[in-house]
Design a protein that fits this description.
Length: 143
């Protein structure tokens, strides 16, 4: 039995993010163990497995038939914290939206009768992704 790594958690991963593990190489089979779930899954070439590596202890073992390469796709929590700080610095507001902007009520809204005169508000002009991207690029040039 060949054990690839000791069982571990990926504590620096995004707190609600998924890991995607896919393998390639000359091996024929390996096993992924997800300890809290009590699962041992056989992983063959080109299989992809999604799981939450931050909360599920895992490791690979029993590599058979050659050399195994793995592509493990995930996002670090720190990179997303950095992005949120940078966004707030550039725009002046965080993930909750612009200051003073009311949040939408969840669920069903009260139905308005045709007889009632209702004045509709003009929608706010929203920043486009391109404008925000330009702000990020300009900020990186000054850093």
């Amino acid at each position: 039995m060949i054990v690839d790594r000791i069982a571990h958690l990926d504590l620096s991963d995004y707190y609600c993010g998924l890991n995607v593990v896919t393998g390639w190489g000359s091996y024929t089979s390996t096993k992924l163990i997800l300890w809290q779930l009590g699962l041992v899954m056989e992983i063959k070439l080109e299989d992809a497995v999604f799981f939450m590596g931050r909360i599920i202890m895992h490791n690979m073992m029993e590599i058979e038939g050659g050399i195994r390469n793995v592509l493990d796709i995930f996002a670090y929590q720190n990179s997303l914290i950095w992005k949120n700080r940078k966004h707030k610095k550039l725009t002046g507001y965080g993930r909750k939206g612009k200051p003073g902007k009311e949040r939408k009520n969840k669920g069903k809204q009260k139905q308005v009768k045709d007889d009632d005169a209702v004045e509709l508000e003009k929608p706010e002009e929203l920043d486009t992704d391109e404008k925000i991207e330009v702000m990020y690029m300009e900020a990186e040039e000054t850093d």
